[in-house]
Model the fold of this input.
Amino acid sequence: MGIDLSFDPADIDANGGTVRGWASSLDMFCARILGRSEDLGAQFDDSAMEFTELVQWDIEGASDEDLQAWRDASGAVRYCAAVTDHWADNIDDFKRERNRLIGLWEDDKKDAEDRIAALGDANLFSSLFCDDKDNIIAELEGKLEEYNAQAKTNWDTLMDNADDRKQELIDGPTPANIRSLIDAGYVNWSMFNIDPVQYAPEISPSEADEWGEKLSEAWKTGQRGEEYDDMMMMLNMLSMKIIEAGNRGTGADRQDQETLKSIYDAIGTHSNGLLNVPYYLDEIEKSKEEQEEILGTLANGILVLSREDLEGGYENLPEDIRDALNSEHWYSGGDVSQGWGADIEPMAAILEHSDEDLMGGKDFSALLTSIVGAGASPEFLHPEGEAFFNDNAGILLDISTRNNEANHAILTDSFYHPEYRNDSEDNKSDYKIDSSEIMEGLFTYDWPDEAEAEGLSVHNLINWISEYGGSSDESQRTMAGEAAAGLIRITTSNDMFEKLTDTVHSVPHDEGDDSYTNQKVSFGQVNPSLSASLYGVFYTYLEEFASEDGNNFPLNEDGETLRTWSLWDSEEEELQVDPLSRVRFLQYIAANEEYTGLLQSAAYTYNNDQLTEYLYTSSGERPTAGTAGILQGLVDAAIYNESMDRLGDSDEARQNTYKTRKLGVDIGAGIISSLPPGRELSFASEILFNSGKVGASEYLKMALDDSIKPEAEGYGGVSLDHLENREIVENHVRLKTLEHMVANGTVSTSEVPQGILAETESGDVRIATEREIQESFSDRERAEIIGQVQNLIKREEQWTGGAFSTGSSFADDYLDEHNLYYEKIVNNLQAENSDEYDNMRVGGPADRPRKNP
Done:
């Protein structure tokens, strides 16, 4: 009895055998391109051959461009043949699976039909032990559903393979695509033989010693053997293979790492240390290009060997490099310059030529950073002096700071010399690297001015925090938060604050008749470009800097010093820092005068954010001005304290603080007034954040009109020398309040003082900013306008949330809150004289030590 169920899975007309024939034709075409009348044969793919061996045409005298065209054409055809062969197998695999499923279905269907037929022949007794017809059909239907699902998977796999093969043909012979063909077994040596830069075959570990001997001999004598170029090419490609496997997420092959290590160990053995290679190359007078090629290959290999994520690590490094990184003098607290100075030059000479986008492993990178930081001090002595250190340390630091896990370990003070793994766990603490000493050296060393202009390598220790802090990847955000907390914690401790603001350096200031030299200046004056890196951290965590956390200023048990903390709350994803540490960190940024304006404009635009939120979303609730007052207080106190530290004069400090605040208002107002309504907050933040990363003066020239910047004297004709915080903020608050009331219709546009109402391109109404009013009106006119604004906002309005209140009382509530929190900050953290500043330097409140309430 037949069952009315069928299984006919999707099929394609393509035939694997036919497609495979096309692949063979392409291989024959490749042979024709190379000048051969016959198939290239197995040797082409099974063994290494020089390209000149493959080409039968007379190519003597051909240009490099012509040779490359030959390589490209033959490589493209061979590549197409391999992809086509792969597609043929995909078709065969699909059809094989399809036929298998059809066969299973036919067997199951026949079995079901036989069982149903048997039901009619069964007697009463036997039927008690047999399935009925419905159960048999239901069982078959279930199997049909399974086969349909498997058939769909088979079809989807074929379509995915078709898309992959199509994309491979579109993309062409990229390294990743060739690697994919190799992994699948469709290419071995052939693509390498056509163009060796594309692929390096596996190298047997048993060849390592032979390679090491031959390469070392070539570098010592300048005499290349026949295999030299192949060995160098394959050595370079072996490193690239390991990197590519890691980049693709498939994971590096441990055997490849072991092979690479064996070769480097052999080179070290036959060269009396890998660090001797640069000296050999100098002696045999290799051309600069040849030296760079050799050293670049060695450098890339060293970095690959050191990578923990590529099955390598510190233990994989050549012995003499480990010896250079393993001096007990420095990780036990001794003099790093002893025994290490001789290694810095050849190590830099090699690593300088590594690929720019290639980093070393965590341990290797952190050790390099640590050693450079420990050596970056005025006490570092070498026969060739400071220039020797400058030339080489910057190179090593550029390499070491590429690894953000290593940067994280340094900044979080959690790094141990990896040699601890060869010792008892009980002795691990002996191998702890003191990050404060490392960072002191890196921050306070007087790096060359040309390095400052190009961008100090030490920036890379910090700059990644801003990128990771805004990442969509939670693990990266955690890394950034922990690093930011560690950076602030280490640099703002009492001991480090003393060292970082009281260096051994002096900085001259040429101001005509008032020229002078500052003694023992802050590191920010020695290396002002570091302010950009610190500013990036500040702006990334601006909300946390404005936090009310610790605003009660708790004291330590001594009853005299403020309690400090800096940590990352991973659950809340929040940076938690006490106010003293925050103001010290901002003081470091303020040491670069360009960045005082950015700090002030950041506080101004943040206040604008909070004011906007207050006006449009927080009516009837607690004002949002407190955090804005805190941030403004921190910025003012930081700039004031930095001026006190540099000038030692409270009057000049006060004048400088108000001057920079006016500049910040001009910058912030200029940004906001130039941006589309409704997008001012995000755009302003972007401009201010990027200005810190690119460089204050350069970016602001691009982002702002020159008119925003104040004149050298008078600052727009408005003196702020005797204004208090509330008076500086209130005009901005009242103008924004009026803008809100005009938008709601409480105040008509005809009532607004002439000249301060603007219509945007989108038709929205905008009230002029303080800066625009200052530029357009005289002092008397400005006073009249502000008076009219004050009268207009006295009207009552129903605010968002339903509360009824006059605009002036609404503004006053905001101002009261802002000023209350502002005063708490400056009273405790702004030093009004040298005694208060000295008290702050040791961790006490600015005004006086006080007990907890």
In short: The beta strands are 507-509, 516-518, 566-569, 574-577, 757-759, 765-767, 796-798, 804-806. The chain has a mean pLDDT of 81. The chain has four domains: 16-192, 207-311, 320-490, 532-606+629-794+805-841.
